[in-house]
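Re: the 410-residue chain
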Amino acid sequence: MTRDGGAQVWIVGVGLVSSLGEGSDAHLVALAGEGAPRPVVDAGRFAGYCVHPLAGIDLSRQIPRSSDQRQMERWQRIGVYAAGLAIDDAGLRGEPARLDTTDLAIAAGNGERDLAFDTKVLETADATCIHGERLNTLLGTGLRPTLYLGELSNLLAGNISIVHHVTGGSRTFKGEEAAGAAALGDAFRRICAGQTERVLVGGALNAERADLLLNLEIANALWRGPHQPIGARLAGGGGMVPGSIGAFLVLERADSAKARGMRPYARLTGVVEDHGPREADGDVAATLDRLMGRLDVARDGSPLLVLSGASGVAPATRQERCFLTRLAASGAEPIVRTYGSVLGHGVEAHFLSGVALAAIALCTGTTYQPLEVGEVAVDGAASGRALVTGVGHWRGEAMALLEACGRPAP
C-alpha cells in the first residue's frame, strides 16, 4: 500500500535509544549539531569486532519495578524503555482508556543464549564430530526450559503491556530487518483501513552479545577491524557493525490525534516492503526501483532527505548505492544520510530507527550533518519530505515515505 486512501497517519510519539543517547533531542543534537557527528564505538570488549554500545540509561525511569527488570533479558529492557519514551512523547501516560485501545506491532528477534552451554555444545561438536541424533539429545537434555521461555519473541510485547499498560491487540513480527518493515507496514495499513486508531510500533536489539556476533560471523556479515563508516567498508569487502538500539513510534489517525491536541512529528504517507530475489547482481537495486515506483515521490528537482538503512554488508549495500545514484539522475534530488554509520546496525530495530530519525528531521526542519565521506552538506532548512530505505543484510527490502505536516510550537 502506498498513500492512504482514507485516514491520514501521523507519527505523534518517538522513543529512541542508541549509543548516541535517549530521546529525540539527544539524537538531534548528535546528528545535526555543529561539527561532524561522532559515532560511539566499543572496539575492545569483543576485540576483532566493533559494536555501538547503548548509552547509559536509568532503567527505573521507564521500568520502575526491579522485579520486572530482572525477569527481562537486556534486549527486552531496551525495548520496554524505548516504548515508554514513545508513550510519554505521545501524551498517553496516565490515559488508561486510550492505552486500552492502543495496539502493538513489535519486531523481535530471538532471545539471548546460554553462552556457557552453547560453548560446551560447540566444543563437543568440534572434538567428536557429532551429528544429528546425538546433537539433538545434547540440546534436549542441556537446555533449561526457563531459558527457552525467556527467549520467546512475543515477550517484548507482553512486557510492554505489563509495564506500560498497553492492552490493545498485539502482533509480533519475525525476520530480522524485514520484521521492522513488516511491523510498520502492518500498523500503517490497519490505521488507513480504519481497523484501529492508534498503534505503538517498534523493535529492539542488544548488540553487545557474543552469541549475536557469532551468528553474524557465521553468516559472514560482520565487519572486522577498526570502525569505518559504511561507504568505506565496501572497499574492504563490506560488513556490519551492530548497534544496540530501541526504536518505537506511536502512529495515530490524524483526526484522533487532533482531537486530543497532539502535535505531529510528520505524516507517514507510504510503507512498502518486498522480499525480492538476490540471485543475480542487480536484483536488490531492481527491487528498490519497484518499491520506489509504488510510492508517490515527486521527482521535480526539489530536495528529498533520504535516510539510508544500508547495513554495510556487500553486495546488497553496493546495490543500494547504485539505486541511490539512479535516483539522483531521475530528478529526485536526494540528500543521503547513512545513519548506520553512526548508530550501528540495529537489525529488527534498524528500519524503525531510520523512520524515527526522519520524523525528527521533518518536525524540526533539519537536515542532518553528513554522516560519512561523499554525503553533501546542505545549507538551510530540510526538505518537507523524507524517504527511508531498508535493505536487509540477507533478505528484505523496504521503503517509507514521510511528509512534514506543520508541527506547531507548544
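The chain has 16 helices and eleven strands.
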